[in-house]
Amino acid sequence: MPVLIAVVTLCGVACVFNTAVLVAVVRRLRIQSELLSETEARGVPARALPVGATVGDFLAYDTEGRAVTAAMPAHTLIGFFSPTCGSCRRERGRFRRAAARWPGGRSQVVAVVTGPDASARFLSRLTAVARIVVDQDESVRHAFGVQGFPAAFVVADLGRLTWTGLHVDVVPGLAEEPVTVSPGRPETDSPTAV
C-alpha cells in the first residue's frame, strides 16, 4: 500500500510538472508569434546592403536595350529574383502588384533575374510594370550585396538605399490605386509559372 501511494504521488507530481512546462512553452510561443507578426508588419530586411548604404557601380541592360546603372532616378524600386528560388516564384505576384502601384510607373521599377540560369522568361509577367534585367554574370547582384533571394530595394538619388526588404507589399510609398497597367496582363502570378 505505501508503494502504491508513492507511485500515485510521483505520477501526480510528474503531471503537475508537465502541465507547468506546457503552459510555459505555450506562453513563449505566443510571445514569439507576436514578435514575428510585428517584424512582418515592419518588413524583414533583405540579406544584402543595409539601409543608408550606397550601391556599388554596375552597368547592365534591360531586355529593351536600355542601360541600367547605379545612378538611377530617385525613388526606384528594384527586385531581385533567382529562377532556382521557390520563394521568388511566390514573390513575383506581390512584386507585380506593388510595381503597378509604384509612383513613377514602369520607368522607376526594375526586376532583376540573376544567376547563371537567368532568363527574362522567368519574369515575363512583370514586363508591363517593370524593366527586366537579366544578370547572368551577377554584377548587379554583387553591386547590391544580395546574399539571399528574393530581395527588394528602394534606391534614392546617387544610389543610396532608403529601404530593403523581402516582401514589397510592405514598402513605404506605394500608391493606393495601381498606376496604369497594360491591358491583357493578369494581376496574379501562378507559383507554377516559369
From TrEMBL:
Residues 49-193 form the Thioredoxin domain. InterPro entries: Redoxin (IPR013740), Thioredoxin-like_sf (IPR036249), Thioredoxin_CS (IPR017937), Thioredoxin_domain (IPR013766). It holds the Pfam family Redoxin. The keyword Oxidoreductase does not apply. GO terms for cellular component: cell envelope. One of its GO terms (molecular function) is oxidoreductase activity. Keywords: Cytochrome c-type biogenesis. SUPFAM superfamilies: Thioredoxin-like. GO terms for biological process: cytochrome complex assembly. It is found in: Cell envelope. Coiled coil: none annotated. Gene3D superfamilies: Glutaredoxin. This is Thioredoxin domain-containing protein. It comes from Micromonospora inaquosa.
